Amino acid sequence: MVGSVIVANGKIIGEGWHKKAGEPHAEVHAINSVKDKSQLKEATIYVSLEPCSHFGKTPPCADLIVRSKIPKVVIGTVDPNIQVAGKGIERLQKSSIQVTIGVLEKECQELNKRFFTFHNQKRPYIILKWAESQDGFIAPSPNPTYERSPIWITNPYSRQLVHKWRSEEQAILVGTQTVLSDNPKLDTRDWYGQNPTRVIIDREGRIPEESFVLDQNVPTLIFTSKKHNENKKNCYFEAIDFEKNTVSQLLDKLYEHRLQSVIIEGGTTTIQHFIDLNMWDEARIFIGAISFHSGIKAPILPKKNPNKSTIATDELLLLSNYD
User: Catalytic residue at 27?
Assistant: First the structure.
């Protein structure tokens, strides 16, 4: 997500933003929007992320700025992508363009925190999400007579918000027990948007074939303990060593699959693994109006200062691991 503004003689003469991957970048839209191109030779272009310097899905923006004879460039933050990473700035400076770097840098990095985490830490941005009862349970005690379906803790408005969140991230991860108990779809059916890639931990291959996560409707990664050669449409198997650091291996594989963000919606065991390793960026916790009195205890986070809000009958806690 990148924005750009062009200013000449104290007035904005052009604006642009990056609308979609593979389409023209913010600088291109901004320059194209300038009606009188002769003004560019006395203008300053502001851009929230370093202009690219390589041929990817689009030509280099740094070259366009040079050809447009714009004398000054103000950049919010350097691009961490190894294909850019200072090369765009170097290209501009070699063309005698005055470059200012690091203006509102923190805000520009926050805008693309998934992108920066992916490139700087070589892993996806991790969001923990769960719902718990008033008395701290994520589910009642298991009952063998229950059908494989969720037991809702939150109200429909909260559930719709969760589907909106799913549409904003690239992957969603759950463990075996969640699939066995709830038979979730892990999609965005209550919101308009793209379904995230489903990531399933199924160490021993216990998930029944009729489970929604195996319906091949959405790209799905399944992590098992054994090499699996039965990849199907939209269904891919990855073997990892569960005797070693499972979380580290999972994140390495998600990085290999170029997934920049993941929501961890698994049960307590799965989520607590990420918490105990301090491997998370955000936590989003719903507290419903229901009480179970006994059951499966909710994950335990280190003490933080959450932002609190209400959604009808539910309370929503938002936490950052960097506060």
Answer: yes
Count of C-beta atoms within a 10 Å radius of residue 58: 16
Query: Within 10 Å of residue 279's Cβ, how many Cβ atoms?
Result: 19
Largest CA distance in the chain: 76
310: left (phi > 0), else alpha (psi -120 to 50), else beta? beta
CA–CA gap between residue 136 and residue 284 (Å, rounded): 15
Domains recognised in the chain with CATH numbers:
2-111 (3.40.140.10), 124-320 (3.40.430.10)
pLDDT in tens, 89-141: 999 999 999 999 999 999 999 999 999 999 999 999 999 999 999 999 998 87
Stated pTM of the model: 0.87
Cα 49 from Cα 51, distance rounded (Å) = 6
Is residue 259 part of an annotated ligand binding site? no
The first and second tokens of residue 223, run together, are 């992590």
Please compute, for residue 118, the number of CA atoms within 13 A of its CA located in the half-sphere on the CB side: 20
Determine the average pLDDT of the residues in 46-54.
Answer: 90
For residue 158, the tally of other CB atoms under 10 A from its CB is 21
Confirm or deny that 182 is annotated as ligand binding.
Answer: yes
134: number of Cβ within 10 Å: 14
Query: Angle formed by the axes of helices 246-256 and 268-276, to 10°?
Result: 90
Q: Binding site annotation covers 265? A: yes
pLDDT reading at 287 higher than 80: yes
Whether residue 276 has pLDDT greater than 70: yes
189 is in an annotated binding site: yes
Report how far residue 192's alpha carbon sits from residue 187's, in angstroms, rounded to the nearest whole number: 10
Measured CA to CA, the distance from residue 4 to residue 14 in angstroms comes to 8
Q: Which of 15, 23, 27, 147 is catalytic?
A: 27
